[in-house]
Amino acid sequence: MICPSYADPEFLIFADNVPALLYYSHIPTIIITLLIGTFVFIKNRKSLLNKILFLISISFSLWAFFNLITWTNNRSDTIIFVWSFFGILYSLIYLLSFYFTYVFIKKRDVSLLWKIISGIFILPIIILTPVKYNLSGFNINLCTSGGFEGIYFTNYYYIFGLLLFVAILIFSIINYRKAEPEFKKQIFFLTVGIELFLLSFFIAGFLASYLLDHGYINDFGLEQYGLFGMTVFMGFLAYLIVKFKAFDIKLIG
Fold first, then answer.
1. How many CA atoms lie within 13 A of 170 on its CB side?
2. Which terminus of the chain has fewer Cβ atoms in its 10 Å neighbourhood, N or C?
3. Where are the alpha helices (DSSP H) in the chain?
4. Count of beta carbons in the 10 Å neighbourhood of residue 116
5. What share of the chain is helix, strand, coil (3-state, %, to 5)?
6. Four-residue CA torsion sign, 129, 229, 209, 83
7. CA-to-CA distance for 86 and 94, rounded, in angstroms?
8. 157 vs 128: CA distance, rounded Å
């Protein structure tokens, strides 16, 4: 179905009937995230830490790009298709963020048990993604699936993300107390950067979904502000690279 009140977008993501903030919150953030993630990965492709950061940048960029499509496209099949992946990508971002924090601080991989438990928790999201418990309909007049999201499905991955956010904070505090003074600074900057990103991402997404479901707003515009947290996180990573030569990268400040 084609939404009657919306024109065809150019190059999939450019349309006249969307807020200007949409492009400022999405496109620069995607570019910065991919540049830093790819740069770190290319510098040391064998490093597990660099690989995880690259996966975070890919997952986030896909989420942001798909979100941009839901705002600018006028085809119901396209919107529903990309919208259905939000739960998986959202969960991956938080899961990989904890994985990244662990490897950065401990300098080793997580245990096999942790990977199995993580897989069990994320499995329901993968299984339920293509069924009605994720998305049950589409509003052709507003050209959105907002309001048709399964409440149990969305609450599950939001709670999953919140628990990982808390786990990162607790894990970082415990290891901060035991670390050497110089490494404490790195743990501090990494934790502040990644937690600011995850917190803003959670609050903006959850709050927008809650207000929309209860009829206080009619779109996900509030969600756009959560993307700016990723730019802040990338800024902290860039500081770690320049100041502390993190990720085995040596640059002139």
1. 6
2. C
3. 21-43, 48-72, 76-83, 86-106, 112-128, 151-178, 181-213, 228-244
4. 10
5. 70, 5, 25
6. negative
7. 12
8. 11
Residues 6+ apart with CB under 8 A from 97: 56, 164, 168, 194, 197, 198
C-alpha 214/C-alpha 230 separation (Å) is: 28
What distance in Å separates the CA atoms of residue 230 and residue 224, rounded to the nearest whole number? 12
Rg (alpha carbons) of the chain, rounded to whole number: 19
CA–CA–CA angle 30, 34, 38 (5° rounding): 180
The residue behind tokens 């993190």 is: 246
Say what angle helices 48-72 and 86-106 make with each other, to 10 degrees.
160
**How many CB atoms within 10 Å of residue 130?**
12
